[in-house]
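Hi R.,

Here's the chain you asked about this morning:
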Amino acid sequence: MKKNFSDKYMMQQALQQAEQAFVLDEVPVGAVIIDSTGNIIATAHNEQEHRNDVSAHAEMLAIRQAETKLKRWRLDDLTLYVTLEPCPMCAGAILLSRIKRLVYGTADIRMGAIESLFAIPVHPALSHKIEIRAGVLETECRHILQTFFVAKRHK
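And here is the predicted structure, written out as tokens:
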């Protein structure tokens, strides 16, 4: 389905995925993958609790969905939008799948592997380079996470 594919619009789509995770009592992180014309290829949200799977992060699920849909593992013409800075596992999958562009909402000072704690995609030994844009709808992306964890602490 072709959409208006501004970074802000696509991050709003990722936030809708994060909201679905929130409702399911999953850490509210959402992801959307689009092609160069703005077609949405994959959408996902965290499902670690539901699947009892440590690797069921929004990014990982969206990448798997895109690979299945496109019948290829090289996603070198796609953009990934995710509400939270990817962790080391997801950063590795993003690199290995050759994602062209990564746009994320809010930094993760505890586990962020793009720019915060680690800077995996910009390591000089790596040949694949990812275009990175951080801070798109940062306030909204941070707010849903903070709301979720405040509610968890009060239970």
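One quick note: Residues 83 and 105 are 4 Å apart (CA to CA).

Cheers,
M.
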